Amino acid sequence: NLETAVVELLKKQDLTLTTVESCTGGALAARIINVPGASDVFNEGYITYSNEAKQKILGVKKKTLKKAGAVSEACAEEMAKGAAKAADARAAISVTGIAGPDGGTEEKPVGLVYIGCCIDGKVWVESYHMNGDRQKVREISVKKALDMLRRHLNHVEQD
User: Fold this and answer.
1) Alpha-carbon torsion 128, 130, 134, 136, what sign?
2) What is the DSSP string of 6-71?
3) Using one digit for the tens of pLDDT, what is the confidence trace for 22-62?
4) Measured between alpha carbons, how far is 76 from 20 in angstroms, rounded to an integer?
5) How many CB atoms lie within 10 A of CB 157?
6) Which one of 12, 64, 75, 107 has the fewest CB atoms closer than 10 angstroms to its CB?
């Protein structure tokens, strides 16, 4: 499965990982921790549901939250970088989005999720528009985050 592949790649590359989650509320960390031996690569994770927590724990800029919002490419990037720094980890994955059923707008509809991946200071962000209820959006977000991390770890390994 995806989480096993991620843990194995992290071990192989001698990398530590941290997670930082908003709309997934710890589900991503839980999937990683389900893998036997995950403690070799995973020390801590963060759930930063409020903007205040994003600022206080991760150093997300007030300006970013005001201008772009918590559900944005800029916020996902700052969350991933901030989590890596806070946890002193070489890899971090961030998830921020609108799981619904409320909170969506025309500009940012329910199901919009940004995932940030930071490895050794380099950051990639991808956005997704997902369909389904709150649980489905959260579930798919976790799968997309694990897949994104796996893809970037494979790419880093080949470099």
Assistant:
1) negative
2) HHHHHHHTT--EEEEESTTTTHHHHHHHTSTTGGGTEEEEEE--SHHHHHHHH---HHHHHHT-SS
3) 999 999 999 999 999 999 999 999 999 999 999 999 999 99
4) 9
5) 11
6) 107
Residue length of the chain: 159
Residue 88, number of CB atoms within 10 A of its CB: 10
Q: Return d(Cα 3, Cα 17) in angstroms, integer.
A: 12
> Which pLDDT tens digit goes with each residue over 116-146?
999 999 999 999 999 999 999 999 999 999 9
Asked if 145 contacts 4 with a C-beta cutoff of 8 angstroms, the reply is no
